[in-house]
Task: structure prediction
Amino acid sequence: MSFFQELQQRNKWLYITGCTLFSFGIISLGFLLFDNRYVDGISLWILPFRYSIGSGVYVFTLGWLSYLINDNKHRNWSTFFLSFISIGFLAIILIQLLNGKIAFLNDENPFDHLMNQLSLGLTSLFLLFQIIVTFIFYRQRKNIHSQHYTWGVRMGMLTFAIFSILVFGFFIFVFDDLYALLELYKNKKGIGLDTQIAFYMGIHSVQIIPLLSYYLFDQKKQVVLFTFSYITLILVLFISFLLRIF
Result:
């Protein structure tokens, strides 16, 4: 059985949602290569491409791991909310794309402001979703898989939740000025290799830690120690980034 067949059996709706996101990501890549339209020096298609591919990977991951959730009610509501949030963000990006704008990086009129507020609401809902799902993985006592892999999933979810809170706090409390954020995005001020490493370590922790716990580690203690080292490195790199830009 192929990965996609197995994924479809584990969670049909997240499989469909992930395929939708990846399909739009592929379309966006085509326009990114051949459409020369730019807004404030940024390609109109870069955000749709990055969002679709990044979110597609996350949705597929949650679809794959959802079989570890014992309670069907918990599995069903988490599937619904993740699909709703993912498609909601995609809809906002599409609406702004049709208006010739990059979503989240403009606030020129009341409609743009409304779209940004909706995005903020969806982001808050996603953070709440991530925290609750992480709690569900920790709360249940019956392990469907081996102990070290189960803890790898738990620690991967926890690390991603911590990273998401850090990024959300950075955007809301540090860069509440939209134009300052836009300048940071355009000029890449302070964004060095260490910052990119921290970002990708954080955003892919929900894949990296479970995979290593399955293929490399064979004890719960190894998974926990590795995760604490992993989180510490992300925090050190993130703090280094903050010190450079202020």
Q: What stands out?
A: The CA atoms of residues 143 and 160 lie 21 Å apart.
